[in-house]
Amino acid sequence: MFGKDFQRKYALTDQGIKNTKQGTIFTVIVNLVVMGGMGILYLLMTKFMDTLTTGAPLPNALTFILLVLAFVVLSLITHMQQYRTTYGLVYSEVKAVRISIAERLRKLPLGYFGKRDLADLTETIMGDVNRLEHVWSHCLGYLYGSYISTAIIAVGLFCYNWKLAIACLWGVPVAFALLFGSRKLAKKNSEVTKAAGIRVSDGIQETLENIREIRATNQEERFLNELNAKIDHHEKTMIKGELSTGIFVNAASVIMRLGVATTILTGTSMILSGQIDFMLLFMFLLVITRVYAPFDQALALIAEMFMSQVAASRLMEIYDAKTADGADSFAPDGHDIVFENVGFAYDNEQVLRGVSFTAKEGEVTALVGPSGSGKSTCARLAARLWDIDSGTIRVGGVNIADIEITPWCSRMWYCLTIP
């Protein structure tokens, strides 16, 4: 259940998997303890019915007071542990995740950032992690714990009466089948909404970066109109996504609650036919009041859980990117820059093929050629702003691909040509 695929699907660390397991276990315990409270109520009502129908003495008040006190204490302890494992531990995990992302970004080659939209990266670091945090703390443990506890309760109900058990629980698998059948639609809506949100972030960033030029050329109205159009489009995509998701979630909730009606109808029919007594139906009705409760929060957030998989995949792209690993020190023998059969491509468009030359220390080396021939590209590759696709670049006899990015950047200067 909590294997590598699950870990990757929700971008969980090893500690995150442990936290989810603990949250699931305590959710199961809490649900069973609460169901135990229903058992105390059923036992009390059974004693009262015996008093009314057979003249048996009233139940011992002290016994039930002690049972209620034990239930309250046990419920308090288990709920506190559930809160700790589903919220407390997750918040510490989120801090570790943000730090690990920052450390991962620090180790990535500089060329990675040239190929990524900075607004997109910012949204991944802030928005996606925040969305996943909500799923980790509010959904995963509750949902999977509810699966297990409901399965345990279902076994007990089937032992009592399989007909009433089916009438009581049939809506649960049907409701979740409906929700899981809508996963592709939810994922598609999430991707569209995410893309629209990034366009809004890009528009805001572009406007802020060019605010002086916009004012100097009297382009405020045009830029604001374009930005408002992007915001309006984002709102429309959000409304459309929430509406389509809400239809499935509410339909699933209604279907699940139909179990109350089918239980009453089935139980009444069985009482009239003499197959069961009223107290057995009463017990199933008590169970129904609690068996659906664990799914209430999960149903409200399960759509968010589906959409969080888009955020998780974006986050895993950062972890999957090849890092600029290497030695943490740089001790060259001189500073000659040597290109040996270097090849490089921008997004599969080949720019350099088999380039070889030496730029000696203490001399001026000029690269001459028409626009687009790769002169600036060679400078960027030498500075390791991009990583080469083939060949070798050496500085002082040291392959720069074998140097960790931080010590390399501390020894490198790059002068940009700004028109």
Task: Please outline what is shown here.
The chain is of the alpha+beta class and 419 residues long. Helices cover 72% and strands 7% of the residues.
Search tags:
single chain; 419 residues; alpha+beta; ABC transporter transmembrane region fold; Rossmann fold; 2 domains; four-stranded antiparallel β-sheet
Write up what this structure looks like.
By secondary structure, the protein is an alpha+beta fold. It has two domains: 4-320, Up-down Bundle (ABC transporter transmembrane region fold); 337-410, Rossmann fold (3-Layer(aba) Sandwich). The chain is built from 14 helices and four strands. The protein has helices at 4-9, 14-54, 61-107, 110-114, 118-160, 162-169, 171-181, 183-209, 211-216, 220-272, 278-291, 293-320, 375-382, 405-410, and strands spanning 337-346, 349-359, 390-395, 398-399. It has a four-stranded antiparallel sheet, with helices on one face. The two termini are 58 Å apart.
